[in-house]
Amino acid sequence: MFPVKEADLHATEFYPGTQAVARAIALLKAFSDAQPEWTLNDLARATGLNKTTAFRLLSALEAEHLVMRNPLSGAYRLGVELIALGGVAMRSNPLRTVSRPTLVTLAEQSGEAATLEVLMDAHVLVLDEVAGDNPMGMTQDVGSRLPVHATATGKVLLAFSSEEQTEKLLAAPLQPLTERTVTEPEQLRRELARIRQEGFAVTQGELEPGFVAVAAPVIDRERQAAAAISVGGPSLRLTAERLPQIAAMVQMAARQISRQLGYWPG
Amino acid sequence: MFPVKEADLHATEFYPGTQAVARAIALLKAFSDAQPEWTLNDLARATGLNKTTAFRLLSALEAEHLVMRNPLSGAYRLGVELIALGGVAMRSNPLRTVSRPTLVTLAEQSGEAATLEVLMDAHVLVLDEVAGDNPMGMTQDVGSRLPVHATATGKVLLAFSSEEQTEKLLAAPLQPLTERTVTEPEQLRRELARIRQEGFAVTQGELEPGFVAVAAPVIDRERQAAAAISVGGPSLRLTAERLPQIAAMVQMAARQISRQLGYWPG
DNA sequence: TATTATAATTTCACATTATGAAATAACATC
DNA sequence: GATGTTATTTCATAATGTGAAATTATAATA
Questions:
Q1: The dihedral of CA A225, A83, B75, B62: what is its sign?
Q2: Quick one: pLDDT at residue A2?
Q3: All domains of chain A, ordered by start, with CATH?
C-alpha cells in the first residue's frame, strides 16, 4: 500500500507526506497525567525532534488551542480545543452509544460503578463510566489510561486478543502498582488461560488497594474483543461470595452488547 | 513576529512552515456533535482541501488513532486517541483544578448542578460539571460546546470581555434554540449592560425549555474574565424567589476562585 | 550590578517533504 | 452489464518544512 521501509515498521510508522503531522501528534502524545507540563527543550529531547522544529509545530498547535502555555513559565500544556475534540470523539463513539443503556442497567442491578474500556497499546482506555448507588469517584476516570495487567478489563482484553499481542505486552516488565499486582509473566499467562475458560476476569487490589472489579469481553462482528465492560467497587461491598453473581451480571451485559454489535455465537 | 499576510488574518491564521499541521487540525475541527461522521469527498469540500491532500492527512491521523473509520462505509469519525488526549487535557487544566473544590461546595450548597465554562469563539466550552442533590443529566456535558448567547455563562463572559469581541459575535445572526432565546442584538446589548452592573447573568428557558441557570465571571490575574461558573436546574426548583439567593452563592464562589487565580479587586 | 548559564525565539539557505492533477481501482445504483 | 460516484495510488514539481546557527530573553550566581 505504501512504500514503507521494513525498519520503520517497528519504530514509528511513517507514511510519505505526513512527517510534520506525525511529529505534531507525537508532541501531543508526550503529555500525560504523570507529566502534563513540558518545557520546550525537554519536549524536543523526549520526542527526538530538533528544538526549532518542535517550537514551530507547537506554535501551530498553540494557534489552534490544542496546546496552551503557562503564562508565567512559558511551559506547554494540552489546550482546551482537545477537551472539545475529546468530547465530540466520546459522544460520537459508536461503541459507547451502543453500550450505554446496558451499562446503566448493569450499574443499577449491581449497585456499583460500571465501565466500558478498550485496548490502547499497553493500556486500557476508559470510554464510559456509570456510577452505582454509592457514588464514589464520579466520572473522573473517563478518558483515563490504566495499565492492562492490573485491570480486570485489561486482562480480559488480553485473554481474548491475539497471542502475538499478548506476548508483546508480556515482553515488557510489568510494573507493580500495589503489593498484589501480578508482575510475573508466567503467572499472568496462567490467569489469562483461566479467563478464556471462564469468560470473565477479576482484579482484587491489583490496581489500587481495596478496589475489586469484574470484567467480561464485548465481541464484535469480526469475532474480535472490541471492548470490555466491568463492575467495580470497594472490597468491603464486592465480597468473595458476591463475585459469582456479579460476574454473571457482567457477562450477560457483555453478551447483550456483543449481540447488538452483530456478533452471533456458535 | 511572523510575516503574516493581512488577508490571511481574517481567514485561517497561517504561520510559515505549518501548513500541513494547520490543515490536519482543520480536518479534526470539522467533526462536531451535529456532524460526527464525514465521507472523504464531503470533508475535503468542507475544508477546502484537495481530495488527495485530505486523504493523506487523514491517513496520518488514522495511523495515530486520532480518527477512525466506519468499517462498513469507510466514513471517518474522531478516534479514541482524542478521547485519551482530551482526558489528559481536562485533568491537567489549571483552571479546572483550582475551581473544582469550590464547584463541589457550590453544588452542595445549592443542591443543583454547578459548571465551569470558558469562551471558545462563539461558544462556551464546559470544562467541568458537578451534579447536585438531584442528579439529572450526569456529567454528559463536559467537553460540550454551547452557544454563547443562549447560556448564562456565555452572556457573563461576553459582558466582561472586550467590546470588539462582543460586537464580532453580535454581527453574526443569533440562532434561536427555544422560543425564549434572545436573538435581537439590541436586546442582548441591554442585557449585557445589566449583567455588568449586577455581576451575574441568568437564562430562563433560552437554551432548552424549563432549564434555568445563573452564572458569574471568574477573573484572573490580568483582570480578564477567564471563565464563568454557573448553577443550573429545572425551573420548577430554580424559582424566581430563589434566584437572588442562588446568584449570591454563585457570585461568592466565583470571587473565591478569582482570588485563587491571583485576582485582587480594587 | 555584572557575569554566566540556560532556555526560548528568530533567521535563513537548502532539499526534503508535501502537494494536487490525473489515472486507476473499488463500490454502489440503476 | 453499464454508469455514476467515491476512494486510492502514482508521480513530477516546487513549495513547504527543516535544522544549524545567531539572537534574544530569562534565570542563576557571584
A1: negative
A2: 29
A3: 6-84 (1.10.10.10), 93-260 (3.30.450.40)
Contact at CB, A143 and B77, closer than 8 angstroms: no
Buried b (16+ CB within 10 A) or exposed e, B234-244: eeeebeeeeee
Amino acid at A89: A
- The closest of B220, B215, B264 to B243, measured between CA atoms, is B215
Report the sign of the C-alpha dihedral through residues A145, A148, A154, A157, in that order.
positive
Mean pLDDT of B202-219: 96
Q: Is the CB of B89 under 7 A from strand D?
A: no
Q: Does B114 touch chain A (CB under 8 A)?
A: no
Give me the total of CB pairs closer than 8 Å, taking one residue from chain A and one from chain B: 192
β-bridge mates for residue B130, sequence order: B114
DSSP-derived 3-state class of residue B2: coil
- Measured between alpha carbons, how far is residue A46 from residues A13, A50, A263 in Å? 18, 10, 42
Burial class (CB in 10 A: 0-12, 13-18, 19+), A93: buried
For A240, residues 6+ apart whose C-beta sits below 8 A from its C-beta are none
Contact B215, B245 (CB under 8 A): no
CA angle A169, A173, A179 (to 5 degrees): 115
* Cell numbers at A104, concatenated: 446503566
> Is pLDDT above 70 for B100?
yes
Cα–Cα distance for residue pair A75/B61, rounded to 1 Å:
25
What pLDDT is stored for residue A9 in this prediction?
30
Could you tell me the three cell numbers for A98? 451502543
Residues of A (156-175) whose Cβ lies below 8 Å from B: none
pLDDT at A11: 33
Q: A88-135: per-residue pLDDT in tens?
A: 999 999 999 999 999 999 999 999 999 999 999 899 999 999 988 765
Average pLDDT of each block of 10 consecutive residues along chain A (266 residues)? Answer: 30 65 96 95 94 94 95 93 97 95 96 95 93 64 94 97 91 94 95 96 95 96 93 95 96 96 83
Interatomic CA distance for residues A191 and A208, integer angstroms: 19
